[in-house]
């Protein structure tokens, strides 16, 4: 009997991943590859390769629930045969049906609702995917109704046909579930923290001018890292009058169980009703005596006062600014005039490379940049007026002098705001020198012999003095707790600000920080005696464990009262200042020196964590208030608060590397 050579040979091992989806069948002398999903027969001979089999699998509707990434990866690994998806050859009509009409994809909905389909290491989980979608919507601020958009449904069905796109209400429910879980995590995190909490309070608005109150908790954790958690986003209605805002804030504090741990309140501006703060102080003082008679308790935003006085300067110069805008529009009105202006600039020796641009009404720093550039071309503008009668927006010499002076003022404000905004996690110690520089300049500007400039400066200083009276002690104490400055920086600036009365003012600051330190020392003593005030920054002792030396601790505490022991504060102030360098990190310094200054370090953690400004860097120069987008403002109050707070909790700092470092679960 004759034996076929083919049957005598050992069958060739099928190594391609494509053969997981085909069965090789031989009929007579012809070898077929039969698709296990649709039973279609294709050539299966070894000479035919596997490219046509892969192409079939790409468009096989009955296996579209499986992952094709393995096939694509296998194709890329083949040398000299790398192809893109756009080059895959298959029936264009079928392709249109697949991607434009995803509803034609058939699968058993009931069977696959709870099924996890596995291919290699990949799997599909409807519940996990639904949660991921909700987290994506929260994290990026997408509108909830995006799940109803046709384009989104087409994209999802083509990407994963097994995913059941849920209606708007179900996604909202998933978002609320995530909010509840994340809120519990934040609640536990804040309440496990032994230090005090600082609270910043900001106003937001909707396009329809509805008002919202945004509350953010600030603190420096046990690892000396500055933390910031948005805890409430409250919708204010007509019943929330100014005199009831204190009750709204207190309810939030008690809901989070931090009313007994509050250290400082930071409001947007100095015009906030003082009665609100007084009522909150009165209610909180029932649980805990206020530190330093409440002087550090009430803080106002530094960014707001800078923005406010900058607006005063721009408003005072408005007529001059309008003339400069008119001159720039005239130069830019035609190519002929622009060329003439450039020639004049060269004639008078102006070699500036800056381009004349108009300012943006919504950002006041753009007005500064417009004025700065226009001043460089001042002589060219003056000469253009002589050569071009159509230029009707010319400035007088006095107006140019006013523009130069106020541009100098705005330059200082812009530079200081840029310094304060450059740090993503600014601690309270960086504000004092910058605010003092403004104070000194305002005093100098008020002495101007020009009536226009001096009257404008007096108006600015009156507004600044209101801020200074509320915040100077908090600013100074924070600066003193920077080991590069200590009391020396206060002495340096106060001698320039107050002149002959500087010593009295310096003593007020010295007494204030000593009084604050004594309050922390009392808390420390109460811990020694087995009790502690809420939010004392000290861990509670375990009264259940046996400690045979408790009596010794009490004896040591009592006998030390009469000894002239130097305090943490005195020791810290008497030691030399730390050398200034750009790499210095004040939180790292206190973390390292906590054992040396155990009580003072507790105070430093609370003081340095006080938010001295409420504006984010991107809003530092914006003229309008904080405005909520239309999709968020149209939501119910509870859903709106849940989405906005959870977005803050889920948002992570951008990490170097790939998205694999971002884990939302």
Description:
The chain contains 26 helices and eleven strands. With 665 residues, it is α/β, with parallel strands linked by helices. Strands 6, 7, 8, 9, 10 and 11 form a six-stranded mixed beta sheet that branches. Helix 9 (245-255) packs parallel to helix 10 (274-285), helix 16 runs antiparallel to helix 17 and helix 19 runs antiparallel to helix 20 (502-528). The longest helix is centred in the last third of the chain and has 30 residues, at 451-480.
Task: Report Rg.
Answer: 35 Å
Give the number of DSSP strands: 11
Unreliable segments (pLDDT under 50, ≥5 consecutive)? 1-9, 62-67, 72-121, 527-544, 653-665
Task: Give the overall form.
Answer: globular
What is the mean pLDDT?
80
Q: Could you describe the largest sheet, including whether it forms a barrel? A: 6 strands, mixed
Distance between the termini: 68 Å
The percentage helix is 40-55%
Strand share of the residues?
A: 5-15%
Work out the helix count: 26
User: What structural class do helix, strand and pairing data support?
Assistant: alpha/beta
Q: Which structural traits does this protein have?
A:
665 residues; alpha/beta; 6-stranded mixed sheet
Would you kindly provide a brief summary of this structure?
This protein has 665 residues and is of the alpha/beta class.
SSE diagram, text form:
Layout: H1 5-8, E1 22-27, E2 30-35, E3 41-43, H2 51-59, H3 69-77, H4 92-100, H5 109-112, E4 118-119, E5 122-123, H6 126-140, H7 150-159, H8 168-192, E6 197-205, E7 211-220, E8 226-236, H9 245-255, E9 262-267, H10 274-285, E10 298-300, H11 302-316, H12 318-331, H13 335-347, H14 364-376, H15 378-387, H16 397-422, H17 431-445, H18 451-480, H19 486-498, H20 502-528, H21 550-560, H22 568-574, H23 586-593, H24 598-608, E11 626-627, H25 630-633, H26 637-650
Parallel strand pairs: 6-9, 6-11, 9-10
Antiparallel strand pairs: 1-2, 2-3, 4-5, 6-7, 7-8
Helix pairs in contact: 6-8, 6-26, 8-26, 9-10, 11-16, 11-18, 13-15, 14-16, 16-17, 17-18, 17-19, 19-20, 20-24, 23-24
